[in-house]
Amino acid sequence: MINIRKLESELWESADLLRQGSKLTSNEYCMPVLGIIFLRYAYSRFKAVEAEILKDRPVRAGRVLPVEPNDFKTKNALYLPEKARYDYLLNLPDDADLGKAVNEAMELIEEQSSQLIGVLPKTYTSFHNDLLRELLRIFNNKTLDEVGGDIIGRIYEYFLSKFAPAVASDDGVFFTPKSLVQMIVNVIEPKRGILLDPACGSGGMFVQTGDFVNASGTSANSAMTFYGQEKVEYNAKLCLMNMAVHGLNGKIKSGDEANTFYNDAHNLEGKCDYVMANPPFNVDKVKAESTLNAGRLPFGLPGVNDKKEVSNANYLWISYFYAYLNETGRAGFVMASSATDSGGKDREIRKQLLETGDVDVMISVGNNFFYTKSLPCTLWFFDRSKKDDIRDKVLFIDARNYFTVVDRTLNEWSRWQLKNLTAIVWLYRGETEKYINLLAEYKQEIQERLSTLLTMMENDLLLLERFADPLKALIKEIKSAVNKAHSLQDLYGLNDLLKKYVSTLNEQSKALLSYGDGLEKAEAKDFAKVIMDTVSTWAQFKKTVSAAFESTVAEIKECRTIIKEAKWLTDKFGDGVYQDVLGLCKQASLSDIEEKNYSLTPGAYVGVAPIKEDDENFAERMIEIHNELRSLQAEANDLMETISANFERLGL
């Protein structure tokens, strides 16, 4: 699993270098740093696409034809001229004018993408060569090759949270987590047509949609037209950078004309196939008359105060999202949880919305999904082409207790949790085939991982020497169970065997290493002869063994997680029949909703499931908490030492 937090701390180091080595303010140096990240990320994608192009490259006169800009265009990727490539900048001689070279790289990229003209930062000559070189070195990080989605947006918010918290929390504006964006895309299922995000921020909705459409075998740029509005010009630049690095073309408007409360900047009312957004929550002081004149309010204005202002704009946004849709359009958006059952004019708008039959799915999201906020939220979905048999129904999903803990302050939905939540929507829509295909995907994934694991386990035996016997019987049992498994359900029993393997491996590896530690150096080396052709000391052997066993345990943990998620799904829905699940999901009729005063809060419908204690998860979480506390204690000790040293220097 990619350690995003570690990556961010390394990026913080680069920002701190800028702070120390330049006279720029935080607002001034944030964009240059993001420019370097952009170059690095663009280069990573360039190399990946280049390798893909070269696989089937024609050969003329015994030579492979060189790649050209058009080759990248057909792959929806950004072509980088040689002098705009990260490795070129990284390897410039010490006496080169690096600031000038980076500026030139930005200009060359703008020549490749018309939507980037005037967007990329070109202020690098104000930095010393050694500072820029160090920045380039720090961002030459392999992790950036592995991270997908809205990486620029996430890192941008990280910088805001570090350097400008007042900006990060201003007007409820904050970055949309990748798993929430992916959930919206999964339910909306964009295929082709017009997509609008009227509060587009750094463009995460566009990036995930592009990935979704491209994965279906269709070119996102040919199938989709992306439109965005973003009031903050700085954010709009980030959006264009983010889209460009993912090979997407978009029409993004910013500044006053992009204030969605008062402008339909692209004239798209009633024309959109898809609308996706994470608007700022609970905005107040919106001018009622100007808003009314701007239109897109099919259900009228929300409540207006005595100052002729809309005091909470949540239902302005909700109305806009509906108004932008064409007769078959779908919308998915993030909204403050309070909006699902707010009263007054909000309730009246909600009632009218429900009477259209176009409210499709409501999903409650728990705390700590947002990067700088701990607030819960709700995902809303409209579908103007719902099937007749569910037209008078709404699917409620309460996912507040279904997530993966990243760390103490951040939760997310894993890849398989996203698939499971989406599968509930499929079954509600009667799309059983998609569910069956997911079960087949689970089975294939688990079998492939078990095949890899068995190879790793056999290698473990070689390293364990005389301590391998207790594991041999387990491996034989696991092989037998795999061979006998004909269905997905047959594989579930392997979870306990894998758990037992981890426990036994830990015991035997401790025995192995403690035995070797008790031998003389020469005896220890002889004892470790299995791999002594690659290591020269007992210490190196221990390190090699520990790394190998850690890899096995990590792979087992991932495999067991996938098995548990598959079981979670099939325990509830079997071979593919939707049913209400207490505490999770409920298909409610409009009469049910009317009885609850038109509330759209999932928890009001799904009920509360009995709590099942998961001893294993509890134990894992306790270890995580212990490690976090230990880390915090170490930080506190370091801080106290610094304070004490400062006092001593002051003679106190």
UniProtKB/TrEMBL annotation:
The keyword Oxidoreductase does not apply. It catalyses: a 2'-deoxyadenosine in DNA + S-adenosyl-L-methionine = an N(6)-methyl-2'-deoxyadenosine in DNA + S-adenosyl-L-homocysteine + H(+). Residues 7-139 form the N6 adenine-specific DNA methyltransferase N-terminal domain. Residues 149-424 form the DNA methylase adenine-specific domain. Transmembrane segments: none annotated. It comes from the Bacteria. Pfam families: HsdM_N, N6_Mtase. One of its GO terms (molecular function) is endonuclease activity. The keyword Ribosomal protein does not apply. PANTHER family: TYPE I RESTRICTION ENZYME HINDI METHYLASE SUBUNIT, TYPE I RESTRICTION ENZYME HINDVIIP M PROTEIN-RELATED. This is site-specific DNA-methyltransferase (adenine-specific).
